[in-house]
Design brief:
Length: 208
Amino acid sequence: MYEAGLLAQCPCSGGGQGVPPLVLFGIAALGAWVVHRTWRAWRKDGVSRMSKIWKVAIVVALAAALAVVIINKQRGPSPGTGAAQVSPPAAGLPRLLDLGSVSCIPCKMMAPILEELKKEYAGRLQVEFVDVMANPDAATPYKISLIPTQVFFDASGKERFRHEGFFSKEDILAKWKELGVSLDAPAAAPQESETSATSTGCGGTGFG
């Protein structure tokens, strides 16, 4: 019920694993065949032959529906999609948690943004993704009603903000700034120049 509720509210492409294109093509072809045969039967033999064609069509349609159900059950969730559980917060780091699905279109659009943030702000921002369809238990504590949902936590672990739907990289960074959380790299400690270090090391040797 939890997964179904999220899918009903997500602007996804079918949600879940979806129906294989070959099966969809077969169903479409069956529909076209039934319409064609019905039209020909109506013109040639009248109602009696039409009823036989519809009976055959119903049997074939039921068989196709059963095949779709079996295929979807066999496919199941893709391995390695989403973490089994949310990682513990890194000490002293703000955290961005994205709750979504690998089959949801806006969630797929979020994926490269999360990867960029993870690489560019490594050591300054903890970025995580949870596939709520593969791991509903991991998402339950956050009580989300729409995917994707991004949850912003400060360095103490307190939730500061959440957003539903696609969220651009620029908007995410702007929100952190609005919340007063700095993601800028710490200033590097000043280092002595190579000339100064060499001069100090050679002092008092008596050369010159």
